[in-house]
Specification:
The complex is a heterodimer. In chain A, helix 2 packs antiparallel against helix 3 and helix 3 crosses helix 4. The termini of chain A are far apart. Chain A is of the alpha+beta class. The relative contact order of chain A is 0.13. Helix content of chain A is 35%, strand content 9%. In chain A, a hairpin with a 2-residue loop joins strand 3 and strand 4. In chain A, strands 2-1-3-4 form a 4-stranded mixed β-sheet, with helices on one face. By secondary structure, chain B is of the alpha/beta class. Among the domains of chain B are: 86 residues, Ubiquitin-like (UB roll) (Roll); 168 residues, 3-Layer(aba) Sandwich (Rossmann fold), CATH 3.40.50; 130 residues, Dimethylsulfoxide Reductase, domain 2 (3-Layer(aba) Sandwich), CATH 3.40.228.10; 101 residues, Barwin-like endoglucanases (Beta Barrel). Helices cover 27% and strands 21% of the residues of chain B. Chain B contains 25 helices and 34 strands. Chain B has a 7-stranded mixed β-sheet with strand order 15-14-25-24-23-16-17, covered by helices on one side. In chain B, strand 8 and strand 9 form a beta hairpin. Chain B starts with 14 loop residues before the first strand and ends with a strand. The chains are: A alpha+beta, B alpha/beta. At the A-B interface, helix 3 and helix 4 of A face strand 8 of B. The structure holds iron/sulfur cluster (SF4) (2 copies) and FE2/S2 (inorganic) cluster (FES) (2 copies). The site of one FE2/S2 (inorganic) cluster has 12 residues of chain A, from helix 5.
């Protein structure tokens, strides 16, 4: 069972309340679910559907559109090595080979201990710093094989716990919007006044 | 010469003048170009556009050119609204090139397995590749591959390789059916239609997605590999599986039914069908069908000839009549045509049999047909639709689609009065719950509130009226209606009674005559030994009448039973004579739907064996009894019927009857007054029963349809989750349900749509017979629900 925990349910309700339509909260809720288990389980999707009033099929349809949502258990650290042009020219392929040898898994695989998942990635928009990679979406630039070894050592030793949380955690500091600060967008069907820039008072 | 004063020319503000390929076209304001073009000869190719759903512009096949100040511009004609003076060209070189390009791309990943594809021959992709495609492909790479068809429900298969991602099925499921159980998943080249993993596309309307899929990606089990479109014969007719009366085409191959498809008519079904109506044709093909008359012998029922069977039936009736006409009764007749019912009513008139009823104790008094009536269209255009009816999604599925559409996309508001949540509850503006028996009071109090008064005052009000709960006296519904009509005297009624042609059967006289009793009275008299002969017209009281103890008692007392049926059933297996009846699609005639719309049913295949239409059996039996009904052909019978029955006097318009149907002539003459039935309160330890039908119950036509029989679920009782906790068992445990000395054991489940203190028991499911609990003489039924220790 990986429905949302009691604690996360409280957060979920807070997130849902930010939107005029419940189902608009789906993406942040999917992140919450992914944070809880490292991936998005079937039960979590069912639970989210119940929370925002859509079918599980709709939750799955939405979630599966996005690459960063995973539906199978993956490693605590997801290492994405860029393989697009600039990085390829600067040795991404060798880096991948090295990573495969070091971790003992092929690209796409997860290590036995559940610590690492290795994956190919397309351009990460850091071409000037090629070759580059991301660990749980945190950049490492101009990476050499030695850098990679050090990175893996540090992750294994827990030295980077402060910087890089486990897969699924979006940020170390959770976004909090106190109720009195929430803008609380008005549901479109309830909007009666036209926006100020359309009310014809100001010269445009 | 008439002189037109230009000042007086009224310009219809809703008409927009455009030209399509240089020909002037009158378009409606707000419609899209492709819709206007569909009324001309210029065909714009399309895959995703569907006139009954919102446009999404998914496939880009419908590109056309529209003149703009900067020259011609390419637009998708299914997303672009018409505008005054718009100039549209659908076949310029640029348009042709664009359309060919789109088709080439659509075909890039398409497997082109037309020779083994069910859609081949009637496939929009095949046809339009031929008419609007480039003829060849430049794509030489490996195509995308998926596992060949995967079952996404008990009925529907999905072949993702063939899918062109038009969003018709997914849009239908979401927008029309309200069951978004299929969805586009993944992205880009991987985009595919899927259900949630391991959760079937269990929609009551799934067959429509198969019908509207523009390729062979969705196929249905009952038709897969059965026939090729060019081998099919077809005829247009009306579904009589329920009283909505959807228009369909019935298709056959080698004298076997193979498929029903929905026909789009404005007043009723808009092209949609429910899965039960669409797939229960398998029952007509069933090998268990009766093919010869049967008569009782020492060895049980044995086949006989028509002449022998008719003679023995005549002998039985003649003998019974010696004790007076009141010792003979007729039950049923609501499942055949108007003409079938009329012929039997004529025979009954001749024999002075007044005890007849086509409703089987689960309907309402025919008086409701004499109240001011609304059509389906009028209902869906009303400002307020009041539901005092069974769950329409379960019982009258396509009416559910229409009313859902009215509430979702139009301006109607639903006020629902119900004992438990129904398929329409999520769409209701207000859903007011009542405990069975208390509806009159609930209606009265609800309508007194200010917000209700304001809503009612907004415009037309239509009450959708039917019998929701089989474990409750009919009077409670009528009293609630009395309250409604007292508060809203102008409200019109849409009567929603069960069984395909109940309205026609009542109109022609298969309803109690000369103040004789209804089906329940007849059975009660029979149980007291006062009925000698019972004639069953396609009715099985053992399945249809809630109170099985009463029916068993009655059947054991009745001396002889004559049954006209398509199958041997529990009710006629001990009959004296059983006549094999021609089934739907094996006979012609007309039928009347719930709003009183008369339309034709037509014959597509030869009746199985020696079976005959009911009307012919009535005429023949008449002759054996020395009575000439004076009908030797269906035409004659039809003419006789429309001259004899005032309600049908509008029915001589054959072309209308063969398309949209003709509304019965009707006069509002009845009044329903408020009543005050006093009800004993439920003691707090018991649960008040709600018994109602679901779409897939053990109906004869469902259990004899191979593709549907597996969907029928076992008898289960549903209670509120807190009541489940109070009973002290977990979901799905077998419990004991009892009334007085009678106990049954069946599983209990929690259901959020059930109110506390009540229990919902779907009728006529398999495994456990719940009918012994249903004493029809009781006002309401309160049961004990206990753990089995
Ligand atoms: S399965 Fe058919 S209807 Fe559904 S998206 Fe694919 S092509 Fe369209
Ligand atoms: S709704 Fe009724 S009439 Fe329409 S297809 Fe279903 S069973 Fe037939
Ligand atoms: S190519 Fe690697 S970041 Fe752009
Ligand atoms: S029919 Fe217009 S885009 Fe598909």
């Amino acid at each position: 069972m990986s429905r949302l925990t009691e604690k996360n349910l409280v957060l979920a309700k807070e997130i849902i309340a930010r939107y005029p339509r419940q189902k608009s909260a789906l993406i942040p809720l999917l992140h919450l679910a992914q944070e809880q288990t490292g991936f998005i389980s079937r039960e979590a999707m069912v639970h989210l559907g119940e929370l925002v009033g859509v079918t599980s099929a709709e939750v799955y349809g939405t979630a599966s559109f996005y690459e960063m949502f995973r539906f199978e258990p993956i490693g605590k650290y997801l290492i994405n090595i860029c393989g697009t042009m600039s990085c390829a020219l600067m040795g991404a392929e060798e880096l991948m080979h090295h990573a495969e040898k070091r971790l003992g898994v092929k690209a796409g695989g997860t290590t036995q201990d559940g610590m690492f998942t290795l994956a190919h990635a397309e351009c990460q928009a850091a071409c000037t710093e090629a070759p580059c990679l991301q660990v749980n979406y945190r950049y490492r630039l101009r990476v050499t094989s030695a850098d990679l070894d050090n990175l893996i050592d540090d992750l294994q030793d827990g030295k980077l716990n402060d910087e890089i949380p486990a897969h699924g955690v979006l940020s170390k500091v959770r976004q909090v919007i106190p109720a009195d600060r929430a803008v609380g967008a008005v549901a479109p069907e309830l909007v009666t006044e036209s926006p100020v820039w359309l009310n014809g008072k100001a010269a445009l | 010469m008439t002189i037109v004063d230009p000042e007086k020319v009224v310009v219809d503000p809703n008409v927009v003048n455009i030209t399509i390929n240089d020909k002037p076209v009158l378009a409606r304001k707000g419609e899209v170009i492709i819709a206007a073009a569909d009324r001309t000869d210029d065909f714009i190719p399309r895959f995703c556009y569907h006139p009954r759903m919102s446009s999404v512009g998914m496939c880009r096949q419908c590109l056309v050119e529209v003149e703009t100040p900067r020259g011609p511009m390419m637009v998708v004609s299914c997303m672009t609204p018409v505008a005054e003076g718009q100039i549209v060209r659908t076949a310029t070189d640029t348009v042709k090139k664009a359309q060919e390009g789109v088709l080439e791309l659509l075909l890039a990943n398409h497997p082109l397995d037309c020779p083994v594809c069910d859609k081949g021959g009637e496939c929009p992709l095949q046809d339009q590749a031929f008419s609007h495609g480039p003829g060849e492909s430049r794509f030489v790479e490996e195509k995308r591959h998926y596992e060949k068809p995967i079952a996404i429900s008990d009925i529907v298969y999905l072949d993702r390789e063939r899918c062109i991602l038009c969003d018709r099925c997914t849009r239908f499921a979401d927008e029309v059916a309200g069951d978004p159980l299929i969805s586009f998943t993944s992205r880009g080249n991987d985009t595919q239609v899927l259900t949630f993993p391991e959760e079937p596309f269990s929609s009551y309307f799934s067959g429509n997605t198969v019908q509207i899929c523009p390729v062979g990606a969705l196929t249905a089990k009952p038709y897969r590999f059965k026939a090729r479109p060019w081998d099919l014969n077809e005829t247009e007719t009306t579904c009589t599986s329920c009283s909505v009366g959807c228009r369909i085409v019935v298709q056959s191959s080698r004298d076997e039914l193979v498929r029903y498809q929905g026909v789009d008519i404005d007043p009723v079904n808009w092209g949609w069908l429910c899965d039960r109506g669409r797939y229960n044709f398998e029952s007509v093909n069933s090998t268990e069908r009766l093919t010869t008359p049967l008569i009782k012998s020492d060895a049980g029922l044995v086949p006989s000839s028509w002449s022998v069977a008719l003679e023995s039936a005549a002998r039985i009736i003649r003998h019974a009549l010696t004790n007076g006409a009141d010792s003979v009764a007729i039950l049923g007749g609501a499942r055949g045509t108007n003409e079938d019912a009329f012929a039997w009513a004529m025979l009954a008139d001749e024999l002075k049999i007044n005890q007849r009823d086509s409703q089987l104790g689960d309907g309402l008094t025919p008086e409701i047909f004499n109240l001011a009536q609304a059509t389906i269209d009028e209902t869906c255009a009303a400002s307020t639709i009041i539901l005092l009816a069974p769950d329409l999604k379960e019982e009258l599925p396509v009416l559910y689609l229409r009313i859902r559409d009215a509430a979702q996309k139009r301006n109607s508001r639903i006020i629902e009065f119900s004992s438990h949540d129904s398929g329409l509850t999520p769409y209701a503006w207000r859903s007011v719950a009542f405990e069975p028996g208390h509806q009159a009071q609930t209606v009265r109090e609800t309508l007194e509130t200010q917000e209700m008064k304001e809503q009612i005052a907004r415009g037309e009000v239509v009450v959708v009226l039917g019998r929701a709960n089989l474990a409750e006296n009919e009077a409670f519904t009528l009293h609630a209606l009395g309250e409604l009509l007292h508060a809203i005297p102008n409200a019109k009624i849409l009567p929603v009674l069960r069984r395909g042609n109940v309205r026609g059967a009542v109109a022609v006289g298969l309803t109690p005559q000369q103040n004789s009793g209804d089906a329940i009275d007849i059975l009660t008299k029979a149980a007291a030994g006062k009925i000698n002969c019972l004639i069953l017209l396609g009715a099985n009281p053992l399945a249809d009448v809630a109170d099985s103890i009463l029916v068993k008692q009655a059947l054991s007392q009745i001396k002889s039973v004559i049954s006209i049926d398509t199958f041997v059933t529990s009710a006629n297996e001990n009959a004296d004579v059983v006549f094999p009846a021609a089934a739907f699609a094996e006979k012609k005639g007309t039928t009347t739907n719930l709003e009183g719309r008369v339309s034709n049913v037509s014959q597509q295949i030869t009746p199985r064996g020696t079976s005959r239409p009911d009307w012919m059996i009535a005429a023949e039996l008449g002759l054996s009894l020395g009575i000439d009904l004076g009908v030797s052909s269906l035409d004659e019978l039809h003419k006789k019927m429309i001259s004899a029955i005032p309600g049908f006097s509008s029915c001589d318009n054959q072309s209308a009857i063969q398309s949209d149907g003709v509304l019965m002539v009707h006069e509002a003459s009845a009044t329903i007054s408020r009543g005050s039935k006093v009800l004993v309160d439920r003691n707090s330890y018991s649960y008040r029963l709600i018994v109602s039908r679901t779409m897939y119950d053990a109906a004869q036509s469902t259990i004899t349809s191979n593709s549907l029989v597996g969907i029928i679920t076992e008898s289960t009782i549903y209670v509120h989750p807190l009541d489940l906790a109070r009973i002290g068992v977990v979901d799905g445990t077998n419990i004991r349900v009892g009334v007085d000395e009678i106990n049954i054991v069946l599983p209990v489940r929690a259901h959020n749509g059930i109110n506390r203190g009540t229990a919902w028991l779907p009728y006529n499911h398999t495994n456990v017979d719940i009918r012994p609990l249903l004493n029809i003489a009781a006002d309401v039924i309160d049961v004990r629900i206990e753990q089995i220790k």
